[in-house]
Amino acid sequence: MITKEVLQIEIEDRRDITQDEVKNIYGTINELEDIECDFE
């Protein structure tokens, strides 16, 4: 399973993603975290 931390490390290691894109991706991650679900 890919965790938030692993995803953030992968994003930060990419040279082709700008800082603005990183901020947008982190915003999306935070929005997804707020969605309630029944998955364990």
Short description:
By secondary structure, the chain is mainly alpha-helical. It is 62% helix and 0% strand. The protein has helices at 4-13, 19-33.
Number of DSSP strands? Answer: 0
Helix content: 55-70%
Question: Using only CA atoms, what is the Rg?
Answer: 12 Å
Number of domains: 1
Unreliable sequence segments: none
Q: Strand pairing plus helix content: what structural class?
A: mainly alpha
Q: Globular, elongated, flat, extended or rod-shaped: what is the shape?
A: flat
What fraction strand?
A: under 5%
- Name the average pLDDT: 83
What is the number of helical segments per DSSP (H or I, 4+ residues)? 2
Distance between the termini: 12 Å
Largest sheet: none
Order of helices and strands: HH
What does this structure look like?
The model has no long low-confidence stretch (mean pLDDT 83). The protein is built from 2 helices and no strands. It is an all-alpha fold and 40 residues long. It has one domain (4-33). It is flat, with a radius of gyration of 12 Å.
Secondary structure layout:
Elements lengths: L3 H10 L5 H15 L7
Write a concise keyword list for the protein shown above:
single chain; 40 residues; mainly alpha; 62% helix; flat
